[in-house]
Write a structure and sequence with these properties.
The complex is a heterodimer of chains A (about 575) and B (about 325).
Chain A lengths: L9 H9 L3 H7 L16 H33 L2 E3 L2 E3 L2 H12 L18 H14 L1 H7 L2 H10 L2 H13 L4 E4 L15 E4 L6 E11 L5 E7 L10 E7 L4 E6 L10 E14 L5 H38 L1 E2 L2 E2 L4 H40 L7 H40 L1 H4 L5 H11 L6 H13 L4 H8 L5 H26 L3 H30 L4 H24 L3 H4 L1 H6 L1
Helix pairs in contact in A: 2-10, 3-4, 3-5, 5-6, 5-9, 5-10, 7-8, 7-9, 9-10, 9-11, 9-13, 10-11, 10-17, 10-18, 11-13, 11-14, 14-17, 16-17, 16-18, 17-18
Chain B lengths: L7 E4 L10 E2 L3 H7 L6 E7 L1 E3 L22 E3 L1 H17 L1 E8 L5 H10 L3 E5 L9 H15 L4 E5 L10 H9 L3 E12 L2 E8 L2 E8 L2 E5 L11 H7 L5 H7 L9 H12 L5 E3 L40 H13 L5
Parallel strand pairs in B: 3-6, 3-8, 6-7, 7-13, 8-12, 9-12
Antiparallel strand pairs in B: 1-11, 2-9, 4-5, 9-10, 10-11
Chain lengths: ~575, ~325
Amino acid sequence: MADNFFLDNKDLQFTLTNVDIEDVVRLREEGYSQVADFAEAPEDYADAKDSYAQVMKMLGGICAEFIHPRSRDVDAEGATLTDGVVCYAKGTEENLDILAKAELLGVTLPRKYGGLNMPTTLYTMMMEMVSRADASLQNLVGLQDIGETIYRFGNDEQREKYLPRFTTGEVDGAMVLTEPEAGSDLQSVQLKATQDPETGKWKLNGMKRFITNGCAKVHLVLARSEEGTKDGRGLSMFVCESGPNLKVRRIEEKLGIHGSPTCELQYNDVEAELVGSRRRGLTRYVMSLMNGARVAISSQAVGIAEAAYRAARDYAAAREQFGATIENFPAVYEMLINSKVNISAARTLLYETTKYVDLRDVYEHLVEHGDGEEVTKEDKAKSKLYTKIAAVLTPLSKALSTEMANKVSYDSLQIHGGTGYMKDFNIERYCRDARITNIYEGTTQLQHVAAIGGVTQRVLEPLMEELSQLPYHGKLRRLANSVDGARQKLNSAIKSALEREDNEYLNLMTRRLCAAETVVFVSYLMLRDALKDPEREVLVERYVLDNVPVAELDCEVVMSGELSVIDERDKILAM
Amino acid sequence: MVNRYSRACHSSTDFLQIPTRFFFAAGEIITKHRRKIVSLTSLVFVKQVPDTKNVTGDAMRPDGTVNRGALAAIFNPEDLNALELALDLRERYGGRVVVCTMGPPAAAAVLRHSLYMGADEAILLTDRSFAGADTLATSYALSCAARKLGDYDLVLCGRQAIDGDTAQVGPQVAEKLEIPQVTYAEKVIEIKDGIATVRNLIDGGHEIVKTPLPALLTAVSSANEPRPAGARRLMRYKKAMTRTELLAKHAGKTYEDSNELAVEEEKLRERGLWIHEWSAADVGADPQRIGFAGSPTKVKKIENVVLAAGQFKDIPLTEEGIDALAKELIEDNVFV
């Protein structure tokens, strides 16, 4: 059988088969009525799922046979800047070309703009496979989110103007937020947007930095539209096109993702259009864009981890030392098993996250655009609930996936030994590529900050309760009991942390609380999955046995109320 | 005759006598068919083949024929190159791309894949009486299909199929249709005033030839990178089916006793999801010239040839060594 990154990945196939997005697809397809206008639209849920599987198989082939073989050269060549013009590596150009031909740009956009109207869950699975083949390509292809943001917040004119060009690959996008003095803290963005009082036209002036694909034809720019303001409420979102007034001043030399150009941009009187309403740039639109990007980066991380783990597994099966292949040594196979289990764990959480992101999006759309009478109270309640769940799962998933990818690529290089440190194998690249995932689109530490509110409000508690009530027997029952116990401890730990009314302590404990929440929730998800496929029992067994004790330890530390990190900080750091 | 068509040779081995691999059919045929192209109809012949790159133990039957059931069925690789040539031409000159395969009902899979890539129409040439065909009978059947289609400007095939490796079917179809052929085609440089300028691969280089249309081209793997299936097209055309498949879907029903089938067929046709199914009678094929009956080729014996080590010879890498090797090869008539 020809190589295929979907067909060779049982875990991903299991996910697609079992992820429950029936509600999502029905709502997206408007009760499967789109088939009247578009022959490619599904007739029912089974038809949609079949189409998704076939598209995944098709992309899986492209990833394995086309994109992956080019990834080394893309990394070595990288994107370059000559006389203000950014050039992708040759392989990157070819990759984008084949994906455009495969009609895989703008997959989530509505069909009338040339999109495939696919749920985020599917788009994320695609990005995972692309990342396994070439992580840097995901950065470029993943900027489809720009089109999605224009679709959601732009006006009809802007949709007509930009979206069809995104889906054909005629234009690409950049999300232009960061400035030298505004990284994690986007409230301090300075780039100026000024409106001509007579024509009403906007112009952008200023600098942006660390802009992925800043050479793109269409830019979504966060800029200060309200003179004299200093915080996020003075920022608006603009869309503009590249031109002589928009200069790429330099591109960064980076540790990894070489195929993706990271640009420093200069805007000199660049004409732009306002997207949505003024002052909502950061608070509404960028947060939405950023949450989408966080999910995409989670998929990038899972994809890199998958590539790294497989490289290590293949290497361990081939490399002989002391008269045996090294896969037979406990120290090595333990690393392989941990990698496998942790990838599966992160994947489970990722696609549970995308399910709720999809649910949030379809219910939000229904409530905002649905016929007044058709929108029920339940719909509104669902929209609210799913928004809350997605808001806590998105950062937890990003934190888990990206830290996992770093650990898996680290161990996978370790399995390669000295050879892995050399450029002869792909593993050193996977380590370099993974390293950015837990930094950009918000560091892991910021993901924890984003999640802790939902964690302390126990947003996931009803979901965990429901999952704990599934009919587990035998081994799964024993494992579920242990997870139930950890959940109780976690609830106590949260209660005790809140009762202290000490913000600094709560901030310090945020990492541990988020980690424990993640372990408990993921354990339940993996238990549920093992009910669907008994083969997966061993995965959840390994995960629970390795991680629940760590989560309980975290809870104990939280409950201890021990303050030396806070109290002795100066003393220790001055030593 | 030949002088009317300019030829340019861009070979790195110009000094060698290179046999030309294109032929012109009789002059009156060319005149009869010549017309100005405004939009091009390309007929692409494709084949479903066993995946001989990934052979398993039971790939061959004891009688020396291929056990097709034991191997995955794939799109013959060079046929993908032929289809890509046709799709590229449609993008440049307009027109349509019709794909045709001869095979069992399951061969509809390669037709659907052709639709995913961008073909406009698909024809499955299927009939029990086509079974057991060698290249002669196959090319006759295909030429009958081409004649039934009638209005083609170009016929394209892969150079050869990976299950037989004969490279005979394309040229034989051209002969039977009495149209010129360019084999080993890599690129159609231009089509103008009913003349196609084609670059084709020859030993050690390539040549550029002109041929009047209609003509047949056989494509080689170096011609292009066949495009992938389009996701939107895939979702649309995965529902395309043949009459046999429609009958199988409604097992037990027939057109005679149920109106349902005719209604569904009409719906499929309206949406461009109907894969035409042509039988031997549909294309007016002479029963004596198709299938087993029309195939003079019989597999007499299959031998497993294992090259013994004794057949290898070390040649010292010196001028004398190479000189001696050249002389030996000339004596053995390997070099002439």
